[in-house]
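haha ok so turns out i had the wrong file open the whole time. this is the CORRECT one, sorry everyone. sequence first:
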Amino acid sequence: LSAFAGMAKPVTAIVTPAVKEADTKPAVVKETPKTEVVKPTEKKPEPKPVVVKNEDKPAKEPEHTVIVKNDTPKEEPVTTKNSQVKETPKSKNFSGGYFKNIFADQVKGADISSETGTAAVFKSTSGWEDGKYYCLHNGAASGTIVKITSPATGRSVFAKVLDVMPDIKQNNGLVIRLSNAAAAELGQDESKFDCTLSFSK
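then structure:
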């Protein structure tokens, strides 16, 4: 045994390290999250409004005031700033006026007075449409119908006395003042003219 003892080789034990269970598991690799590239949403073009033309009914055009200029020079009356110029309405022929028949009744069996002198005109809105003429007279009572005749034209009108003429300078030398509508039927466009008066006392 001693002989073999020298020949014996030491036995080296190979120790395999213990493998842990955890080491056997495959390594977990964390995946990097993918970054999604978001493309901007394309903006859809808005639909254009559909215009339907109605050929049958054309659109109504706005009304316009047409001013026609007259190149012919026109004489305008000279007025002050505060005065308003109104056109004299055209007179109608009422065959003497509304009070003609009343005059005929008044002079029946009555004394008739006559005067000759200068007449003047006052402006009135009455008489142009109805032939009701009025006057101011100092010799006839209020309500009396006076027949006024223009020797220049040969026409006559019948006017009702409203009152006496005011005692002012403008009435000096006048026998009567009558409405402009009455003067228009007499054919007088003057502010003063000769006349003959007839009326019952």
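The helical segments are 2-7, 21-24, 100-106, 180-186.
again sry for the mixup
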